[in-house]
Amino acid sequence: MNPGPTLPLTIGLTGGIGSGKTQVSRIFAELGISVIDTDQISRELVKAGSPNLHKIAKYFGPEILLPSGELNRSRLRHIIFADSAQKQWLEDLLHPQIRSLARKQLAASRSSYAIVVVPLLIESQHYDFVNRILVVDCEENLQIERVMQRDQTERSVAEGIIAAQIPRQQRLSQADDVIDNSGSLSELKDKVRQLHEHYQELAQQRH
User: Fold this and answer.
1) What is the model's pTM?
2) Terminus of the chain with fewer CB atoms < 10 Å: N or C?
3) Partners of 133 in the beta sheet?
4) Contact at 8 Å (CB) between 133 and 115?
5) Among 62, 94, 110, residue at a domain's last position
6) Is 184 exposed, middle or buried (CB count within 10 Å of its CB: 0-12, 13-18, 19+)?
7) Which domain range does residue 88 map to?
8) Mean pLDDT in each 10-residue stretch from start to end of the chain (207 residues)?
């Protein structure tokens, strides 16, 4: 992986649904580190009135929009969850734009290193500017409980989402660093701080 000279040391943060990626990225941000969230970029790209949303409505039909003109995310998720060809169409539309904007934000970063949050980092193979992969991990049962609680959804739905993602062991096998997020928030903060120091050292070694 070979980032351009203008990019900082770039850590790709990933993990299964309900593992705690958002929580971990928030702690890095509190430590003064630039955090680029590809989910957030994706939301911006499909906001009401955007050219991308117009293309999505034309492809999937007007029922993909809420009365407010915004994207009906749960309906879209349901459609692409059931049809890999339609999922591929959506990814072909959005993913190159997401990567390009993530790279731009990285180039503008002023912290010693930067975090890019990419839920499907292992699957995508397109983030060649990422120097290290950090996986946030926990037991599958804990993931299911967290998803049920967060999304107010049934166990079968949570299990279905996890089953559709790559296996936990496959994700862990690709990791340079792993944060086990099975414990308390204070334990998590300690683990992030330790990695923060490690990444600062690595960033210094590059210069």
Assistant:
1) 0.88
2) C
3) 12
4) no
5) 110
6) exposed
7) 44-110
8) 69 94 96 96 95 96 94 87 88 94 95 94 86 95 90 85 88 96 95 97 90
